[in-house]
Amino acid sequence: MAEETFRNDWATKDFYKTLGVGQDASAADIKKAYRKLARDNHPDSNPGDDAKHEKFKAVAEAYDVVGDEAKRKKYDEFRSLQARGGFGAGMGGGTGGPGGFGGGGFNLDDLLRERGGAGGGLGDMFGDLFGGGQRTRPQQARPRRGADMESSATIGFSDALDGVTLSLRLPTDTACETCQGTGGKPGTRPHICPQCEGAGFVVSGAGGAFAMQETCPACGGRQLVYDEACPTCHGSGRGTSARSIQARIPAGVKDGAKIRLKGKGSPGENGGPAGDLFVKVKVTPHRVFGRKDDNLTIEVPVSFDEAALGAEVKIPTLGGAPVTLKVPAGTPNGRTFRVRGKGATKRDGSKGDLLATVEVQVPASLDPTAREALEAYRAATAGKPLRAGLFA
């Protein structure tokens, strides 16, 4: 029943009349008529005029058939058969009888097969006319995932260790405010895109089963082009605005890391999902602490006597109470001590360590008492050359 309704609906339409041309009009005359009607009735040129919007659809529908040589030939054949007897209510059944074509057991499908009008009868003829070939109507746009976006954020050293929530302001695509999304300079008159002839799409590929419909690159799917592009968006029809989002930076993030925030990118099209946002993190250095993987580092200055005789030295921890570092007697410069559990937060929530490196300090100047003591030390150790091994 649905197929019969579909056929009867097409049978009542005179596409030549819709375009205002005769059946014997040339292809050039048909194209010229279509372009004029499409331009005069295009929705972008007639906002809010429902009658012209419907007229535009009808014109596009008519040109889709009679503007294509193969479809036009089949359509003319169909109209010729209709004019000689009419299809009546039985046109969808393919058999004669009351309401059929000519009666007397006449079978329309058989006639069409004999004439070569359609390989599979009336059904195939309508399939070829209004569903096949390269000049098919654009299908409903499929959902498209939004584009991924990139941003950057600078956070403090402590925030990188503990995690922090940031407010980020991001650009987003909107219709250009100057041209309202048309892409044309306000006040200029649009005309039908010559590349897609007002269809909004083009067919690419080798044809046949491998042909694909793509958005027209010349008009961006808007079907119209302008003699002068919009000075603000340069013809793209798109503008930019800003939006704010809350981004959670996890604990333990490292300098230069990229954080992926799912669904925070550009909005999708036609119901598609949003893209992702990738935030590149820059961590400001700390005055005292450094970082090595999941461990914190600190350089601890000690005096010569503390390194030589041993000492207990208090050192700070990040965000916690100080700890006492036991420096054994004879500790060399550059030795590193490990303080467990005082480092950065790991992925599993545990803590790394604090790595304390000893730096023996050499005094820039000495008072008389200190100088006398050091000269006595030098005299006491004169028989133990430190650099003898260099000449072995």
TrEMBL record:
Transmembrane segment boundaries: none
Superkingdom, natural source: Bacteria
Stretches annotated zinc finger (CR-type): 163-242
Domain CR-type intervals: 163-242
Biased composition (Gly residues): 124-134
Location, primary (coarse class): cytoplasm
Residues involved in Zn(2+) 1 binding: 176, 179, 230, 233
Key words, A-Z: Chaperone, Cytoplasm, DNA replication, Metal-binding, Repeat, Stress response, Zinc, Zinc-finger
Residue intervals of the J domain: 14-79
Cofactor notes: Binds 2 Zn(2+) ions per monomer.
Protein name: Chaperone protein DnaJ
Native species: Nocardioides hwasunensis
